[in-house]
Write a structure and sequence with these properties.
Rossmann fold, alpha/beta, Arc Repressor Mutant, subunit A, 3 domains, 6-stranded parallel β-sheet, 359 residues, single chain
Length: 359
């Protein structure tokens, strides 16, 4: 779920000014852009862009060219800081990712407090009853849930406290959310593999996105296989015990008899583990096996040849989360489900299926 992009300087200035205004640093009129630029060590254009963003939210009121913006005291008084609990999918995999760090930074800059939880969805076994017990013990105004199962999100959707889904199996559930628009990109990547002669394609994805009902992205993968004459089976979407040993056992089983010619691996950490497995087995990428990651990572920029992956920008994801928190803080209903752009990047880890393996 990581991506090499960070918030732009203008975004950072916007969130800093919003936080200072809500904390009551200024009253009446905001200092002029020249004074703010000198204080923050940025240029006037960056500050002007940030001020215009705050005008759009209604926190600042324009007074015409050459005049200072007024602080909308009514809008400021309507806002409050929140205690936001961040429920991760997996502490080990998620806690230090760039996306999670940027979410925490942006919300902190906006004046909110992030609550660190002792357990993740993985340690709670994606069990709504265990999640409910954790929620009852946590003093929070709102919840962010990262890559949750459908049953967990259905439980949150039925509660009165504000909750927001970051990724996860959420379509058809009335819960505000954001994610990159991956389904058409997954379908494109699958079609690309099929056009190169691949018929034995396997996707390795965590159980939460496969069961009890597949996400839209998983469904797009299975539908594309079916459309092109590949009847989907457990081989194409295997189940596995979500431990290191379970992941490698799944790979060993796949390659024991009729090995796949292509793997689509969900999440960068598992992609790296798959690369290590193939190396250990003496299999070459892409000569023996084509390999695609469903996410991008800064480490991929140092690979030669480049890694085939699905690329998306974290910045609109972070902005959407901050916007939702701002709406909650003002008591404004917000149930929008937002999709951000994504693209398939065909790199050097994808090639034609070998002649001996085609069927």
């Amino acid at each position: 779920m990581s991506t090499p992009s960070f918030l732009t300087l203008s975004d950072q200035v916007t969130e800093h000014l919003r936080s200072e205004i809500l904390r009551g640093r200024w009253s009446g009129a905001l200092p002029g852009k020249h004074q703010l630029a000198a204080e923050l060590g940025v240029n006037n254009k960056t500050v002007e862009s940030a001020l215009r963003q705050l005008e759009k939210t209604g926190l600042l009121l324009p007074q015409g060219a050459g005049r200072k913006r007024l602080i909308n005291t009514r809008r400021r008084s309507m806002s409050r800081t929140l205690r936001i609990a961040l429920l991760l999918n997996d502490h080990v995999l998620d806690e230090k990712t760039k996306l999670v760090l940027e979410i925490k930074h942006a919300l902190d800059t906006a004046g909110h407090t992030i609550i660190t939880l002792p357990k993740s969805l993985t340690t709670l076994r994606f069990d709504p009853k265990l999640v409910a017990a954790l929620v009852r013990k946590t003093e929070a105004d709102a919840w962010l849930i990262l890559a949750a199962s459908r049953s967990v999100l259905e439980w949150f959707a039925g509660q009165s406290m504000p909750a927001f889904a970051v990724f996860g199996n959420r379509f058809g559930i009335k819960i505000p959310s954001v994610s990159p628009n991956k389904p058409p990109v997954i379908a494109e990547a699958t079609r690309h593999l099929i056009s190169l002669g691949h018929r034995r394609i396997a996707m390795l994805a965590k159980r939460a996105v496969r069961m009890p009902h597949p996400t839209v992205g998983i469904a797009a993968y299975l539908d594309t296989l079916h459309t092109h004459g590949c009847q989907p089976s457990e081989f194409n979407l295997p189940d596995w015990d979500e431990t290191n040993a379970g992941f490698h056992a799944c790979l060993s089983s796949l390659f024991r008899a009729t090995p796949p010619t292509a793997l689509i691996v969900d999440e960068v950490t598992y992609f790296v583990a798959a690369m290590q497995f193939l190396l250990r087995e003496g299999l070459k990428v892409p000569a023996d096996v084509s390999l695609i990651s469903t996410d991008d990572d800064v480490a991929f920029s140092h690979c030669d040849p480049p890694v085939a992956c699905m690329r998306w920008d974290m910045r609109p994801v972070v902005r959407r989360i901050v916007q939702w928190a701002a709406n909650v803080s003002r008591g404004k209903p917000d149930f929008a489900q937002t999709l951000t752009p994504a693209e398939f990047v065909s790199g050097g880890t994808v090639g034609p299926a070998s002649t001996s393996s085609r069927r």
